[in-house]
Structures are given as C-alpha cells and as structure tokens.
Amino acid sequence: MSKLPHITTSIFTVMSKMAAEYNAINLSQGFPNFPVDERLSDILARLAKENVHQYTPMAGYPPLMNKIANLVQSSYNRIINPDLELLVTAGATQGIFTSILALVKTGDEVVILDPSYDSYESPVLLCNAKPVRVTLNDDYTPNWESIEKACSSKTKMIIINNPHNPTGKILTENDFLALEKLLSKYPEIIVLSDEVYEYITFEERHISAHTKDFLRNRCIMISSFGKSFHITGWKIGYVVAPEYLMKEIKKVHQFLVFSVNSISQAAISEYLDVVDVNLLGKFYQEKRDYFQKLLQNSRFDLKPCEGTYFQVASYATISDEDDIAFCKKLIIDHGVAAIPISTFYSDNKDQRLIRFCFAKDDFTLESAAKKICNI
C-alpha cells in the first residue's frame, strides 16, 4: 500500500518532459540556462585534482561552515555557532524534508500557506501528521485571521516561504508582527522559514526571519546555494536552527545522506571569498525588467514580482480553459512551457494564472517572448 497514494508525477516533471517532446522553450522548471560564474568553475576544476573527494564531517565541511556563519552575520547581523546551529544539506528540499521528519510526530498538524511548494506536504504525510493548508489572499498576502483559525494545540509547525514561490511576494513588517502575535498564543509552534530566494529580491529587500529575535529560538531557516549561485544541479543548501532543534535534525540527516558532496562544499567555501551575494538582486531584477518589457505588448497581465526569478501572468482575457489545459496548449501550439498555478493549491484553485521562469539568457527570453506575444 502506498504511503502517498494521491501523489503523482510532479507538474514540473510533466511540463519539462512535454517541453522536450515538443521542442518548446522551457520557462516552466526553475533552473537557469546561463553559464556558471567562471570563478566558481575554475575553483571546481582546480579542486578536482586535490584531496577533497572523501567524506566530510556529517554536519558539513568545516571551512564552509565557518563561511556560512560569516555570511549569516554579514547579511543579517545574526551570530550563529556553526558547530551547534548549522547543517549543510543535499539541497534545500532535503533540509526541509529532514527538519519535518525530525520534529513532526504522528497526530501533529503543520500549517502550509497556499499556493505552496509541493515538497512541503509529503514529509508531513510520511510522519503520519496532518497538513493544514491555508489559502493566501488573492494578492498573495497572508490572511492572518485564517491562519490563526487553522492553529490549535495540535499545531507543531507553520511553514513560511519568503520570498515566495510561485508568486514572487515578500512578507512585510506587519506580517512578522502578526506572526509574533500568533506565536505568543501558541508557544509550542515551530516556524520553518524557507528563504531559498533570500538574495533574489528587487525594489525592497526581503525581511528575513534571521533578523527577528522572537524567532531565534523556535525557527528553522532553509537556504540554498543552488538558487543563489545558479547551480541548481549541485543540490546543496543549508539549515540554521537553535541547538535543541538542530540536534534532532542532525539525527535524521546522518541516516538520510550522512554527509553532502565534498567537492561542492569545498568549491563553494572558496567561492564565498570572492562572490558578492548582494549583487544577485540587481542581476535578476534586470532579467525581470527585460522579460516584462518584452511582454508589454502581449495579451497577458503580468502580476507584481518582488523577488525570486518567477513571473506570474494572467491569461484570463485570452482563454477560459483551466490552467493545466492552457499550459499544455501553450507547449503544443505555441512552443513555450510554463507552470499552472492551480497545482500549488490543495484544492487546485484555478484563477487563470501561470508562472514563467525568467532565469534564462536573453536569447531564450527574447525567443519565448516572441512566441508569447503572438498568442
């Protein structure tokens, strides 16, 4: 008997496979198609000939651990103990899965805000716990009244995603005030803050949970080098959590992967000495602005994008088809792949919205935009 009977092939796999079959431009799955920074590839090439191919310590490569601690301090003015509060993971998704598996027990409830990343719910179900899905407002701001109603003495965890995938929304100071008020009523709730797009924000820098004192002792932070450094295939991220939570997370991690790819850790450790993460927002803002300019004469209504490398667009004036059917037609008839937003909701809420990934080179964006504007 299946432990996840309702889980099928992910929409990302479906759309990417269709894009390949129909030779469509793939703006669906969230991965860049431009080259990695030459400084990083040069470091990797050199390290390949050095003695960095054996197991690292379970929690991570010590020089990288220290560099991450420095990065957290420089970015958020937060001092962490890398030996006790930090874990390098095989991608952010593994960090999410491991944290949930370590801390959520049978009968617990986990609040998930929809639209949501599809990897949040499955580990909750595998814990024999209950995912409680709460829909964001239509402008993708949190409805804190609904969130509070969804909480109870059974609530073990609430998952927030900031900047938000798929919508590009970032949380405000008022959102954190509301979260603080909620947590004061439910002092046992743990927050899992998925901030994998933390350095990809535009007009306003996102407010990290790292900066909130009231969260320090009850929050698990999830970050991704794959997203930040355009190396999604390396599958490397990290988790920051208070010691009492990290002890439990490490117990699961050591039996899940034990330790993460050694050469990637060594390479990123060196790369952190030369890269400026604060330039990432500008880099992707230019891509966002260019993509929006390319589509300004299309029939799509582009929604605000405050962070991430995703652009949500409405096709409501183009078609009455459901968003999954529309995305399939977009691939087959027009040669562009996107992701239907309804698949991020537990109830498949369909508002005639789709998501494009603009983490592509200019030629790809231009080629895709030409096809989109002909619709």
Automatic annotation (TrEMBL):
Keywords: Aminotransferase, Pyridoxal phosphate, Transferase. Pfam families: Aminotran_1_2. CDD domains: AAT_like (cd00609). Its cofactor is pyridoxal 5'-phosphate. The keyword S-adenosyl-L-methionine does not apply. Residues 24-372 form the Aminotransferase class I/classII large domain. Belongs to the class-I pyridoxal-phosphate-dependent aminotransferase family. It comes from the Bacteria. This is Aminotransferase class I/II-fold pyridoxal phosphate-dependent enzyme. SUPFAM superfamilies: PLP-dependent transferases.
